């Protein structure tokens, strides 16, 4: 697939983990993002990338990063090795694409504004630095979540952005399949600087229930089932807060009738790195 075809481009949900992903060269998660990035650049060949990250939640609206030259990055994390605060990621934005995103969201009756100051957060630049270390002429635009918005709202955001897929643009929701940071840090070994590899009782069952929705259904059925996850008995163990979960709702909304395919998963403690491709054809 390439950007000069009429095929609808895939969209994705990725689990981005923490900033150490950049330097954990031997980890399976790092290797996955390298392989995925190779596929994106050599097979999919997008014109641009739009990312909705867990780490940007605007109050009462959606904000769209609007840069033309190099887009700054922010180090929105604390307590990590100094090496991580020296990381750079040289990417550029696109004012034209940002304006197009704003128009699509306004047509869908969302309140949306441009943001010309906030850089890419680690939910964007960390996985993309591993996947696409030198984006060159590939514009990257970040779109915020809306704080405390419903699951249905986030699905509708994805639907509004879906036409971008027909223009050679990748849409990526960046969060975590399962994300209980508190439980995971309570099992963190500070002597070895590693998380416990023991998987907590809710992690895999919740991930498997998500698989049944994301992979085994599509279209409105998938959207409705994701919206109903608000009542899942394990939800607040798997996701005490919603910000790492709802990028999946955005991606599913953008996916429409395209089936989901699990690209990768690893589980430890209260975390699942499930990542999904939504694509009409293999």
TrEMBL record:
Domain (Extradiol ring-cleavage dioxygenase class III enzyme subunit B): residue spans on this chain: 11-263
Metal-binding as UniProt keyword: yes
CDD domains: 45_DOPA_Dioxygenase
Endpoints of the signal sequence: none
Cofactor: Zn(2+)
A Pfam family recorded for this sequence: LigB
GO MF annotation: an example: oxidoreductase activity, acting on single donors with incorporation of molecular oxygen, incorporation of two atoms of oxygen
Keyword list, A-Z: Dioxygenase, Metal-binding, Oxidoreductase, Zinc
InterPro entries documented for this protein: Extradiol_dOase_DODA, Xdiol_dOase_suB
Protein family according to the UniProt entry: Belongs to the DODA-type extradiol aromatic ring-opening dioxygenase family.
Identification of the protein by name: Extradiol ring-cleavage dioxygenase
Organism: Gigaspora rosea
Lineage of producing organism: Eukaryota, Fungi, Fungi incertae sedis, Mucoromycota, Glomeromycotina
């Amino acid at each position: 697939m390439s950007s000069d075809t009429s095929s609808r481009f895939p969209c994705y949900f990725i689990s981005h983990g923490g900033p150490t992903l950049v330097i954990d060269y031997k980890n399976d998660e790092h290797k996955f993002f390298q392989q995925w990035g190779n596929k994106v650049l050599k097979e999919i060949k997008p014109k641009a990338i739009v990312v909705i990250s867990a780490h940007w939640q605007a109050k009462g609206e959606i904000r769209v990063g609007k840069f033309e030259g190099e887009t700054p990055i922010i180090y929105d994390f604390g307590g990590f090795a100094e090496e991580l605060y020296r990381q750079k990621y040289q990417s550029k934005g696109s004012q034209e694409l940002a304006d197009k995103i704003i128009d699509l969201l306004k047509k869908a009756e969302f309140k949306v504004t441009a943001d010309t100051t906030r850089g890419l957060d680690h939910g964007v630049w960390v996985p993309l630095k591993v996947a696409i270390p030198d984006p060159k002429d590939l514009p990257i635009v970040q779109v915020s979540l809306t704080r405390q918005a419903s699951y249905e709202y986030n699905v509708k955001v994805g639907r509004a952005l879906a036409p971008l897929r027909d223009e050679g643009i990748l849409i990526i929701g960046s969060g975590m399949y399962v994300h209980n940071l508190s439980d995971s840090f309570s099992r963190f070994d500070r002597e070895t600087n590693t998380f416990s590899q023991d998987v907590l009782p809710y992690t895999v069952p919740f991930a498997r229930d998500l698989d049944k929705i994301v992979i085994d259904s599509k279209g409105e059925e998938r959207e409705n089932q994701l919206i109903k996850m608000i009542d899942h008995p394990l939800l607040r163990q798997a996701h005490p807060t919603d910000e790492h979960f709802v990028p999946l709702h955005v991606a599913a909304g953008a996916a429409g009738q395209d089936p989901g395919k699990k690209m990768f998963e690893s589980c430890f403690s209260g975390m699942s790195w499930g990542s999904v491709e939504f694509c009409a054809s293999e």
